[in-house]
Amino acid sequence: MTQAAKVNGRLPGTLRGWAVDRPGPIARAAPGAGPLVRVERPMPVPGPGQVLVETEACGVCRTDLHLAEGDLPPHREATIPGHEIVGRVVAAGPGATRFALGERIGVAWLRGTCGVCRYCRAGRENLCPSSVYTGWDADGGFADHAVVPEDYAYRLPGDADPAHLAPLLCAGIIGYRALRRSALPRGGRLGIYGFGASAHLAAQVALAEGATVHVLTRSAEARALALELGAASAAGAYDRPPEPLDSAILFAPVGDLVPVALEALDRSGTLAVAGIHLSDIPALDYRRHLFQERDLRSVTSNTRTDGEEFLALAARIGLRVTVTPYPLNEADQALTDLSADHVNGAAVLIP
């Protein structure tokens, strides 16, 4: 019996999407010559413990941009990016029984871990040396279908708008982890540097938990959104917040903002850097930036526990997800707009 014959469900014939061909700056590429190229491939067959998902929506993350532009070294050639996938299960591989055919699930960045290393055993699977990622180590959601391990997928409500669910799967989850890493005390003062997809969700969680939020970002449109969502203030990225901060999160991939954010912290404050890529950090002055027990922390991926906690919290508090939709055939334009900070909230591809 062939592998395809063992699969439960219908297998369509052709997958259509976009792959990273030659990583490079997307803003300077000539029309049609950017790092993303259209691809058509045989439909992938789900293996043991995997499911085939028909994509309903896929969020466009800044990590996808880093992969396309070469800030993240490719792990394989011609990978299809995208790791905020909402879709329906259309086929299941051998032993995959967690989800029913037709059920809606979500696929996020973390795709697999070893389960046995000291990090996995300690509940810190995001630090697993053998971890693999959707849209980096395996094809992701910039396509009409994707194969995913069922153990790393999330069950999603079947009656919600898929475009508004997609950003929760990375922007939301990593923003939630960054918020927790920032050690924000209850009722504390939080500074958020950069205000895109992840930041506008993390800000709402912080506000729901009683924080005062100050947003610092270069985009006037993003500042307006921040105030609309309930931020106490919104100013330029290099401006001083109106009061000392207990915690700060740096979402913008700009190393120059690290000393700026550290200097805005009160005594014992914590800065969490949320991005997978950051430009070079300038030299820090110990007394100005780190003395008085200020902490500087990075944020690395997420655990599945983070994902489950955040998705439950998002449903409970009713997060407002601001999206800019693009048809799947305009994925290259979505990345170009993201690079230029022309996306308000989160960009989402709709097949």
Structural write-up:
With 351 residues, the chain is of the alpha/beta class. The protein folds into two domains: 196 residues, Quinone Oxidoreductase, Chain A, domain 1 (Alpha-Beta Complex); 126 residues, 3-Layer(aba) Sandwich (Rossmann fold). The chain contains eleven helices and 18 strands. The strands form four sheets. Strands 1, 4, 5, 6, 9, 10, 17 and 18 form an eight-stranded mixed beta sheet that branches. Strands 13-12-11-14-15-16 form a six-stranded parallel beta sheet, sandwiched between helices. Strands 2-3 form a two-stranded antiparallel sheet. α6 links the parallel β11 and β12. α5 crosses α6 and α5 crosses α10. The radius of gyration is 20 Å and the shape is globular. The two termini are 33 Å apart. The N terminus is likely disordered.
Number of helices: 11
Q: Would you identify the CATH H-level superfamily of the largest domain? A: Medium-chain alcohol dehydrogenases, catalytic domain
CATH topology title of the largest domain: Quinone Oxidoreductase, Chain A, domain 1
Could you give a short account of the major beta sheet?
8 strands, mixed
* Helix-strand sequence: HEEEEHEEEHEEEHHEHEHEEHEHEHEHE
Helix content: 25-40%
Rg over CA atoms, rounded to whole Å, is 20 Å
- Find the count of extended strands (DSSP E, 2+ residues): 18
Q: By helix and strand content, what is the structural category?
A: alpha/beta
Strand content: 25-35%
Q: Briefly, what CATH class of the largest domain?
A: Alpha Beta
Distance between the termini: 33 Å
Shape: globular
Q: Number of domains in the coordinates?
A: 2
Q: Which regions are unreliable across 5 or more consecutive residues at pLDDT < 50?
A: 1-6
Q: If you average the pLDDT, what whole number results?
A: 94
Query: Which CATH architecture of the largest domain is right?
Result: Alpha-Beta Complex
EC number: 1.1.1.1
Organism: Streptantibioticus parmotrematis
Catalytic activity: a primary alcohol + NAD(+) = an aldehyde + NADH + H(+); a secondary alcohol + NAD(+) = a ketone + NADH + H(+)
Domain Enoyl reductase (ER): 32-349
